[in-house]
Amino acid sequence: VPQEPINQEKTVEDSFGSIESWRIDYALSMVNLNETNAQNVKSLSGGQKTRLAIAQVLAKDPEPSVLLLD
Predict the structure, then answer these.
(1) Burial zone of 28 (CB within 10 Å; 0-12 exposed, 13-18 middle, 19+ buried)
(2) I want to staple 44 with a disulfide (CB 3.0 to 4.6 A). Which of 4, 18, 48, 52 is the partner?
(3) What percent of the chain has a predicted confidence (pLDDT) above 90?
(4) Considering only CA atoms, which of 27, 32, 30 is closest in space to residue 13?
(5) At what angle do helices 46-60 and 21-30 cross, to 10 degrees?
(6) Does the pLDDT of residue 62 top 60, yes or no?
(7) How far is 5 from 21, CA to CA, in rounded Å?
(8) Residues 6+ apart with CB under 8 A from 2
(9) What is the value of pTM for the model shown?
(10) What is the rounded distance in angstroms from the CA atom of residue 68 to the CA atom of residue 12?
């Protein structure tokens, strides 16, 4: 699943688009960001934004066979 740029003006939850909320909650908990749903993406640290990008991939496919990180 290709990564799309993170929109800095949205909240963490809104940055996932039309993905089901249970998938978003699961993905955020996998990267330890489950307390950030209502925060604006702009307020996240660089490391948190990286974990958010990983969570977005996990929300689309919870069990990827391969996850390439660059």
Answers:
(1) buried
(2) 48
(3) 33
(4) 27
(5) 130
(6) yes
(7) 20
(8) none
(9) 0.82
(10) 22
The residue length of the chain stands at 70
What are the distances in angstroms from CA 40 to CA 53, 55, 64?
A: 14, 16, 27
Tokens of residue 5, six digits = 């740029």
Nearest CA-CA partner of 52 in 68, 4, 66: 4
pLDDT tens digit sequence for 30-58: 999 988 878 888 999 989 998 998 999 89
**Average pLDDT, integer, range 57-61:** 88
Q: Give residue 20's pLDDT band: very low, low, confident or very high (50, 70, 90).
A: very high
